[in-house]
Write a structure and sequence with these properties.
mainly alpha, 90 residues
């Protein structure tokens, strides 16, 4: 009670100080959350761009793989025909 008596007897009023500090902490916290959210969004966007590039690369790899399979199939047919020709000759 001695503290309350000192405040009541002409000491410093703590209420405006607490309100000011509380408001500043709320504003600072809000700014910190906004900055954190912004950088998190930027990281998410970068990940999405990287994932799109990876998806495109994967699609190209599948297409190239199919082309290689087709070329290998044609080559196998040519090798079979050459082997058959060698059997017929020899």
């Amino acid at each position: 009670m001695n503290g309350a008596a000192v405040l009541a007897s002409g000491g410093t009023n703590a209420t405006p100080i607490l309100i000011t500090l509380g408001t500043l902490f709320i504003i600072a916290g809000s700014i910190a959350v906004m900055v954190w959210s912004y950088f998190r969004l930027q990281r998410h966007r970068a990940d999405a761009i990287a994932m799109a590039a990876y998806r495109k690369l994967a699609e190209e790899a599948v297409a190239n793989q199919q082309e290689l399979r087709d070329a290998l199939q044609k080559l196998s047919e040519h090798v079979r025909s050459v082997e058959q020709l060698m059997r017929d000759v020899g």
